[in-house]
Amino acid sequence: MRIAARRLVAPVLVLGLVATMIPGAAMAKAPDFSDIFEKNKDAVVNIATTQKVDASAGGIPSEMLEQLPPGHPLKRFFKRYGGGDGGDNGSPKRERSSLGSGFIISEDGYVLTNAHVVAKADEIVVKLHDNRQFDAKVVGMDKPTDVGLLKIDATNLPTVKIGSSDKLEVGQWLFAIGSPFGLEYTATQGIVSALERSLPNDSYTPFVQTDVAVNPGSSGGPLFNGKGEVIGINSQIFSRSGGYMGLSFAVPINSAMDVVEQLKENGKVARGYLGVSIQPVDRGLAKSFGLDKPVGALVADVMPDTPAEKGGLKAGDVILEFNGEKIVDAADLPVIVGTSAIGENAMVQIVRDGERRTLEVPVGSRTEYAEKSGESEATGGGAAADLNIAVRELSEQERKKFGLDDRGLLVGNVAPGPIAQAGIQAGDVLLRFGDRSLTSVDQLRQAVKEAPRGEPIAVRVKRDDRSMFVTVTLPEK
Q1: What is the tens place of the pLDDT at every residue in 174-228?
Q2: 287: which residues sit within 8 A by CB, 6+ positions away?
Q3: N or C: which end of the chain has fewer CB within 10 A?
Q4: In the CATH scheme, what architecture does the domain 272-371 have?
């Protein structure tokens, strides 16, 4: 019994020692941001905006109603009972206010914030830490990077020190100052959670992901590193509640400052442009295209009369490098192309038909190109039996509708089988099966007949105005 007692006591003593030692070690590593706050608080500003918007008589902003689909019950309700027009022109005006954050980057009054903080604002007021307030004008905004540049009429202003976001590493401590929910000069801290994070609808921004607490009103505020240098602009959060849930995203300061220089000089941002639609490479597609692993950006479509077409890029090419920079994920390509020199040729390494080759592709201007820019069904015979679909050749009217020449087979009925498993639907147009372009049902029959069994085959599909690749695996006979 005494031996057992000793064995029980020993672990308790060890645990006591560990509990005593951990806080001291943690406290030795925990950063103290008080000095950074004191040195930078005067250069951080609060931004209040006012916007005149149409409002229905029921008090609902018309722009909210306009986002609802035609015939939505709310639209009918406010049109019938609200005394308004459901959000159409002629509604009375009302003022809408919002709050955000920003920071001063020059002594003569340039203020950096998010584009979404000041977008569509009729009036912008910048408030400093010493309670001085200035009317601000928008020098320029760039929505793809969510960067907004303001100017206030003042001199000898305190400024932040700009750092380099290229030197960030996952795990580094970060510090933010902002006005969440209007609570001015709130300080929060965290670490770098991930780098070069791509988000939906933000193709041109390699976001810095952090766990720094950011809430509505913090947008546009500075994100500091441990040296007190600004390395990002707090921009977005992922949330199911509308508030912070541990995922926040900042615009890298290097990207932001490049935008600032262009906004100062031209009032807008010029971006490189290829003219391709791309998609990620999954494991099945990688195997189909002869790649060792899923890497690169798969070209799903090439727009006519674009730099990509002139440079020889084709649908089915997998872009692995662009001007020496590796394309690990498809989301890497827009960022790299967007920052490339317009008018110069880029060396693009691709995989085509299982072979690596390098193309010289011109880089165009995105702005420039943005400004230009019912018959009897024939079943697939053997193709229908193996794929469990019915297909037919396109009519002349359908070719015009889809913008196709002599290519394409319209998918009719889709029964359970390889095509259904790949996500192909009735109404889609099959453009290519494996390495064979499809211009007739006979071609599809032959392609299916010659295709390998039990291995993924790349199939190019057009759906509405978008082209994409999927993989189809034919069952073993």
Answers
A1: 999 999 999 999 999 999 999 988 776 566 788 999 999 999 999 999 999 999 9
A2: 455, 456
A3: N
A4: Roll (2.30)
CA–CA separation, 154 and 158 (whole Å): 11
- Is there a catalytic annotation at residue 282? no
Neighbours of 363 (CB within 10 A): 24
Q: Which of 146, 202, 301, 386 is catalytic?
A: 146
Q: Which fold has domain 45-152?
A: Thrombin, subunit H (2.40.10)
Homologous superfamily, domain 375-473: PDZ domain (2.30.42.10)
pLDDT of residue 21: 44
Can you say how many angstroms the Cα of residue 48 is from the centroid of all Cα atoms in its chain?
27
Q: What is the pLDDT of residue 325?
A: 93
Q: Which of 85, 116, 277, 437 is catalytic?
A: 116
Selected catalytic residue, list 101, 165, 193, 219: 219
Is there a common fold for 45-152 and 161-266? yes
Question: For residues 140-163, b (16+ Cβ closer than 10 Å) or e, as one string?
Answer: bbbebbbbbbbbbeeeebbbbebb
- Other beta carbons within 10 angstroms of residue 357's beta carbon come to 12
Domain boundaries, the chain: 45-152, 161-266, 272-371, 375-473
SS3 380: coil
DSSP 3-state assignment of 314? coil
For 281, the 3-state DSSP assignment is: coil
Q: What is the pLDDT of residues 380-422, one digit of tens each?
A: 334 444 677 778 888 777 788 788 887 888 887 666 678 878 8
**Which of 195, 277, 207 has the alpha carbon at shortest distance from 236?**
207
Q: Report the DSSP beta bridge partners of residue 326.
A: 321
C-alpha R_g of the chain: 29
Helices within 81-165 (DSSP H only): 115-118
**Does the model's pTM come out above 0.85?**
no
The predicted structure's pLDDT at residue 209:
96
Other Cβ atoms closer than 10 A to 136: 24
Those residues of the chain that have pLDDT short of 50 are 1-27, 56-59, 63, 67, 81, 83-88, 373-385
Examine the residue annotation and report whether 116 is marked as an active-site residue of this protein. yes
| Strand boundaries in 19-162, DSSP class E | 44-54, 93-104, 110-113, 123-127, 133-142, 147-152, 161-162
* 456, two tokens: 């993924």
Closest CA to 363 of 373, 348, 375, 379: 348
